[in-house]
User: Fold this.
Amino acid sequence: MTDPTPAPAVPKPTTAVIPLTFAIAVSLLVAAVINGISAFGFPINAPVEQVYSFGITVDLLVAGVILLVRALVHRHRLRAEPVDRVVVLTIVAAALSVVAFATWLFAGGLDDIGLLAAGQRGRYMYGTAGLFFAGAAWCLAFIFGTIGYRKGGGRLNTGLSVGALAVAFLLLAAALAAGVSYGLGLTD
Assistant:
């Protein structure tokens, strides 16, 4: 006779780098809180700026929660053997980070940099319009760059992943700087 009790489920091995995933998730969630709080200082007659800020906050929350859930799900899984190959997600993450950066740059970021370089006050709309419109690409660059990173995954894969995350975090710094400075009344 066979034993009627089923065999215990064995968790799938994971290639996720849990500390990195947690760190990026927490960074995005903290940035969402900072961005949300900075919007309380926006002028009441700035509805478009408030919509942009809300959209950016939602983007950061979504990416942060997705990565936090991934880290929590994968934290008890066994470590898989590293494979020295390029993961498709890192290629997509790099491409999306370039799309987000180009959109930010040409939708106002370049104008904002020009104003600041000329010693004038920056403009919140210039500094965040591209991120508002390319929010999905920006968030997916964070998510895919984090998921695609593999410890021992090879130089090309690591370079694409780290590059995508670096560009995404550079854009995050620009968004937070624009939001906080506008909320404090330092920019227009």
